[in-house]
Amino acid sequence: MSIALSVDKLSVIYDHFHALKDVSVDIETGESFGLVGESGSGKSTLLRAVAGLAPLASGSIKIHGDLLVGTKRSKAFYRQVQMVFQDPYGSLHPRQTIDRLLLEPLAIHGISDSDTRIARALDEVGLGNGFRFRYPHQLSGGQRQRVAIARALIVEPSILLLDEPTSALDASVQAEVLNLLEQVRRDRNLTFVMVSHDLGVVTHMCDRLAVMRNGTVVERLTSAQLAQAAVTEDYTRNLMIASKGFVKA
Ligand SMILES: Nc1ncnc2c1ncn2[C@@H]1O[C@H](COP(=O)(O)OP(=O)(O)OP(=O)(O)O)[C@@H](O)[C@H]1O
Questions:
Q1: Ligand 1 mean position to 197 CA, how many Å?
Q2: SS3 letters for the chain?
Q3: What is the ipTM of this complex?
């Protein structure tokens, strides 16, 4: 198995606050990896650091073996790595039609054949061509998140960084969007790194996970171990109790 994303002894300091301290994770190609932990434990910071959106103090990040330098990310990086955030409304420009939103990444990367690609992308996320000339405010939360997923997938990345991608959605819509993500991961052999406060979602979606606390990884588990409550840290046990979506096997 090749390593898609390798994070080695990564530290992030905001002003004087250590948001990540010596965090190391290796995520295999095609794997779905979860990051869980209490609020403020550094889950989003880890994703943001990979995307070049957090100030690195030390350590290294490699994508398919290539070292990322500093916080500047190349166009080639965004061909390989895309991010989907919790709030699609915040990440979709309100005055742009869905067509325009999907065209933008194609234009940035000089990808031709945009008509066909936009139609295919909308189809892949379960939205027909009828959505193409609508605006984000004319869509439901779940539809907007489908657009955000289409926009991430349209440049054919190999890695998706998913930051609470369904936590703003109602439970039934959440399940639909998670199923969609799982489907595209299988179809495209994508690597996922998924932040979620919901241990039920992580057990369902991920092969392995890291439990984070105060900017460090305190425990590493397979989802099977989590489902069987085969955990060693009381902190993880408390997270399980606090996560109402989590049903112990
Ligand atoms: N831009 C920033 N400037 C200063 N501190 C920040 C910044 N971004 C995050 N932090 C701090 O870093 C810590 C980790 O934040 P992070 O967003 O990674 O947590 P999280 O585990 O994703 O939490 P949540 O589940 O609430 O999203 C928090 O204490 C947060 O206040």
A1: 14
A2: CCEEEEEEEEEEEECCEEEEEEEEEEEECCCEEEEEECCCCCHHHHHHHHCCCCCEEEEEEEECCEECCCCCCCHHHHHHEEEECCCHHHHCCCCCCHHHHHHHHHHHCCCCCHHHHHHHHHHHCCCCHHHCCCCHHHCCHHHHHHHHHHHHHCCCCCEEEEECCCCCCCHHHHHHHHHHHHHHHHHHCCEEEEECCCHHHHHHHCCEEEEEECCEEEEEEEHHHHHCCCCCCHHHHHHHHHCCCCCCC
A3: 0.95
Taking the model in full, what pTM does it have? 0.93
pLDDT digit string (tens) for 54-111? Answer: 999 999 999 999 999 888 999 999 999 999 988 766 778 889 999 999 999 999 999 9
Which CATH number is correct for 3-242, 3.40.50.300, 3.90.1200.10, 3.40.50.2300, 3.40.50.720?
3.40.50.300
User: 20 CA to middle of ligand 1, Å?
Assistant: 9
> Which atom number of ligand 1 is nearest to the Cα of residue 48?
18
Q: Whose CA is nearest to atom 25 of ligand 1?
A: 39
| Residue ranges lining ligand 1, Cβ < 6 Å | 14, 17, 19, 37, 39-45, 197
